[in-house]
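Feature request disguised as a bug report, sorry. It would help if multi-protein outputs had a clear separator. Right now it looks like this:
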Amino acid sequence: MASLIDNYEQQYAVLTADITAKISRIRVQSGGEKRAFVQDVDRQIEEAQELLEQMELEVRGMNGTARDRLRGRVESHRAELKRLTQEFQMVKKPKEDVTEIVMEESWDNNVTEDQRKRLLDASEKIERTGRTLQNGYRMALETEEIGSQVLKELHEQRETIQRGRGRASYQLCR
């Protein structure tokens, strides 16, 4: 059951990284491209909420300290998604104030092509870094899973050895 939650967490981490990258790209986009990013982020936020609900259902079915630990992680994910949703709402909000529109247009006119290129390069670097972090997170989860499997196997081997010792000492005592 924990591996299912780990799988949900991996999916959630990939989604939130993509949402974060798209939110930063929405800031520099306009027109149809901005609308497409907004629609993508809306869909991805809904998907992330569904993943959190699935995690909560799985956690409810557990018992003991694992449930408490996982419940804390799910609440942490929920708080993160709430923060991302608020940030997204601020970014997608249309500029209603005329002075803001004028300032934005004058800013656009004052931005050189070189500055735009550097901004896009920086955005791409942030996206690559996010993917690298996600890969690292995925590897950490896989390593944790392997470690827990090794510990389980060692525990089973220990029990087998103890049973063998018990039978051997029983045989010697006869």
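(second protein starts here, but nothing in the output says so)
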Amino acid sequence: MASKFTPPPVFDEKKSWIDYKKEIKIWQALTDLPAKKQGPSLYLSLSRKAREAALEIDIEELKKDTGVQTILERLDKLYLQDTNQSAYIAYQNFESFKRPESMPIKEYLIRFEQLYTKIKDHNMTLPDGVLAYRVLNSANLNQEEIKLR
């Protein structure tokens, strides 16, 4: 059976660095590419600032079994926000989220849960009553919809 090459995920600077690192770990788990080639492959998937930063790494380091880890550690210095700033942004995104009127409730609940998971990743949990209030308040329901519930 021939192996199929799956390229590493592309990093978009609008995406969370933490989420991108998780995607790289997932890619490593499924790729058939030998570890020695994963670092150079990851390098080629980078662009702009990320690629410039990774270019500072010696090619022999990239070709080691630990090449991906070396790139991620180098890029941590560029993209990893301090813990407090990251927690603040996650909570701000959660707190300010309101369902657009055009968004189906099912999709809203999925997005709400995603945002709540991000704040839980920073060891912030809300009591059940507060969480229930946030779900209803952020749902952006009109008075008729509230009465039907």
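Even a blank line would do. Unrelated, but nice: The two ends are 55 Å apart (CA to CA).
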